[in-house]
Design the sequence.
C-alpha cells in the first residue's frame, strides 16, 4: 500500500503543473512518473545554464566544435543518465576518462583513439549505434582536435555541457493554475515568499497583496528560503531528470545574484545556515550539496542516500545538517567536515519533510507511512523519543513552532493538524482543505501559519485560534489557452474570477 501511496503522490507532486502549462518534456512522460518541463531559454547574463556555451566556435578544431558534434550524435547514449559502456561525454574530464574499455582518446594520435575507430567503423559496432554515421567532415573535425593534443575548453568556455533537447512548447487547452510549491515567511514576518511555476511571488501576509514577482526560474520552485538577515531569497527547483537549479536574489534591489547548478535532477529543498554563509540543497539525484551563496560556488557534495533527498535542514546552531530521503532514513551530518555522523532508520517508508526543534536537540520527520517520528539527538547518535500514526494518508509537510511547543503537519487526507510537541497529542485541526497542502511556514513570532495548496490557493491562519485571516486566494495568475481569431492567435486576459485579494 505504501508503494501505491508513493507512486500516486510522487506523480502528482512531480507533474507539478505540467498538466497546467508545461506538458513540455524532453521525452514525453518519463518512466517513474517523472515529467520534465519546458526547455530553458538562452541563459541571461550572469547565469551559468548548461547550454549557454554550446554555440559553434569559430575554431573548427576546438573542444567546443567537437562537443557540438557529440551533443547532436552521441549524448543520447553517453550522458550521465544513460552511461552506455560506462562512457559519459558531458564534460571534458569524463570524455578524457573514457568508459569500460579505458581511455577512448589518445591525445596527439587519432589513429589509436578508440572513439575515432568506432565512429569510422574500423572497430565494431560502429557508432552512433543504430543511428546515422558521422559525416566525413565531422570525423575529420574530431581527428584534427585529437591530433592537436585533444585540448580542453578555452578560458571562459564551459567544461560541462548537457544534451540539447528538442522539446515542444505545448500550451494548455484549458485554464490552469500553478500549484503552490513552497512558502516561507521572512525573518521579520513582513513578507511571504510563495514559489510556483517559474516564479516566486512576494506577498504582504496581512493583506495577501502581491508586492513583487521574481521570475526566471526553470520549472517548478519547490523550495524557498530567506537569508537570516532577510535581505536575500533563495529558490530551488530545476528541470526533472536534467538539472537542479538554485537562484539567489537581493531583495533590496531585486537583482539576481547567483544561479547555481550542479545537481543532475530537480531540487526539492534548500536551506540557509544560521550564519548565512552556507546553502544546502537536496535533490532527486540522491545528493546533498553545500554552496557558498556569496560566490555561487559548490563547497561540498554529501553522498550517502540511496534515493531522492526531499528535505534538508540546518540545526539552530549550524553545526549539523539533517537530510530526509525516500530511502526511509534521516541522516545527520557534520557541517564543518561533511562527515555523516549517523543515520536514523526507524521510518517504514519515504520521508518527505523534517524539522529541528528550536533547541536543536530533537528532530521530527514524517512521510508516506503517515507517522510522525521524533528523535533525541547527540553528537554520537539519535534515539527515537516517540512516534505516532498521525494522519489518514501520507504526511506532506511538517513544521515545529518557534516556541517549541507544537508540531504542525499537512497530509494528503486534506487536513492540517496541530499537536503537542512533547506528547504528540492533538491540539487542533484545519480540515476540508481544497487540495493537498504541499507547503507550510510559521512566522518567526509564532503568530501566523501559511498554507499553500496543489490547486494554487493560499491561506494564512492565526496560530492558536486557527482562524483563516487571508484567503483562500490564488497565488499566481492562471495560465490560459491561446484564443484563436482567424489566423491570429492571441493570449487571453490574465485575470481570473477565482482570484481574490484581501
Sequence:
Amino acid at each position: 500500500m505504501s508503494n501505491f501511496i508513493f507512486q500516486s503522490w510522487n506523480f502528482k507532486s512531480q507533474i507539478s503543473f505540467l498538466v497546467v502549462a508545461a506538458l513540455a518534456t524532453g521525452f514525453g512522460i518519463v518512466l517513474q512518473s517523472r515529467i520534465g518541463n519546458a526547455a530553458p531559454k538562452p541563459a541571461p547574463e550572469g547565469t551559468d545554464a548548461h547550454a549557454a556555451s554550446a554555440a559553434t566556435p569559430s575554431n573548427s578544431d576546438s573542444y567546443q566544435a567537437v562537443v557540438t558534434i557529440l551533443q547532436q550524435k552521441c549524448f543520447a547514449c553517453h550522458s550521465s543518465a544513460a552511461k552506455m559502456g560506462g562512457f559519459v561525454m558531458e564534460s571534458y574530464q569524463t570524455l578524457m576518462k573514457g568508459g569500460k574499455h579505458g581511455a577512448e582518446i589518445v591525445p596527439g594520435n587519432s589513429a589509436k583513439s578508440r572513439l575515432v575507430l568506432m565512429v569510422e567503423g574500423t572497430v565494431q559496432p560502429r557508432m552512433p549505434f543504430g543511428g546515422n554515421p558521422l559525416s566525413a567532415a565531422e570525423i575529420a573535425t574530431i581527428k584534427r582536435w585529437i591530433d592537436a593534443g585533444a585540448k580542453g575548453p578555452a578560458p571562459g568556455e564551459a567544461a560541462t555541457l548537457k544534451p540539447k533537447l528538442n522539446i515542444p512548447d505545448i500550451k494548455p487547452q484549458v485554464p490552469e493554475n500553478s500549484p503552490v510549491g513552497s512558502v516561507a515567511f521572512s525573518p521579520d514576518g513582513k513578507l511571504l515568499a510563495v514559489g510556483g511555476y517559474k516564479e516566486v511571488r512576494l506577498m504582504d501576509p496581512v493583506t495577501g497583496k502581491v508586492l513583487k514577482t521574481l521570475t526566471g526560474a526553470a520549472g517548478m520552485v519547490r523550495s524557498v528560503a530567506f537569508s537570516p538577515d532577510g535581505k536575500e531569497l533563495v529558490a530551488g527547483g530545476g528541470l526533472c531528470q536534467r538539472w537542479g537549479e538554485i537562484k539567489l536574489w537581493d531583495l533590496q534591489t531585486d537583482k539576481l545574484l547567483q544561479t547555481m547548478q550542479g545537481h543532475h535532477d530537480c531540487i526539492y529543498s534548500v536551506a540557509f545556515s544560521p550564519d548565512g554563509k552556507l546553502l544546502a540543497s537536496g535533490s532527486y539525484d540522491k545528493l546533498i550539496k553545500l554552496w557558498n551563496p556569496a560566490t555561487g560556488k559548490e563547497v561540498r557534495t554529501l553522498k550517502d542516500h540511496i534515493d531522492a533527498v526531499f528535505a534538508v535542514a540546518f540545526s539552530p546552531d549550524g553545526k549539523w545538517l539533517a537530510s530526509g530521503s525516500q530511502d526511509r532514513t534521516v541522516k545527520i551530518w557534520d557541517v564543518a567536515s561533511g562527515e555523516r555522523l549517523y543515520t536514523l532508520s526507524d521510518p517504514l517508508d519515504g520521508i518527505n519533510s523534517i524539522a529541528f526543534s528550536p533547541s536543536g536537540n530533537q528532530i521530527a520527520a514524517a512521510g508516506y507511512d503517515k507517522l510522525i517520528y521524533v528523535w533525541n539527538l547527540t553528537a554520537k547518535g539519535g534515539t527515537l523519543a516517540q512516534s505516532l500514526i498521525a494522519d489518514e494518508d501520507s504526511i506532506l509537510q511538517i513544521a515545529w513552532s518557534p516556541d517549541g511547543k507544537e508540531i504542525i503537519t499537512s497530509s494528503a487526507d486534506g487536513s492540517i493538524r496541530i499537536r503537542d510537541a512533547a506528547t504528540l497529542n492533538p491540539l487542533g485541526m484545519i480540515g476540508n482543505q481544497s487540495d493537498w497542502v504541499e507547503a507550510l511556514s510559521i512566522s518567526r513570532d509564532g503568530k501566523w501559519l501559511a498554507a499553500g495548496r496543489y490547486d494554487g490557493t493560499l491561506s494564512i491562519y492565526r496560530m492558536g485560534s486557527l482562524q483563516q485571516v487571508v484567503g483562500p486566494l490564488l497565488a499566481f495568475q492562471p495560465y490560459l489557452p491561446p484564443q484563436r481569431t482567424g489566423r491570429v492567435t492571441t493570449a487571453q486576459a490574465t485575470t481570473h474570477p477565482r482570484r481574490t485579494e484581501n
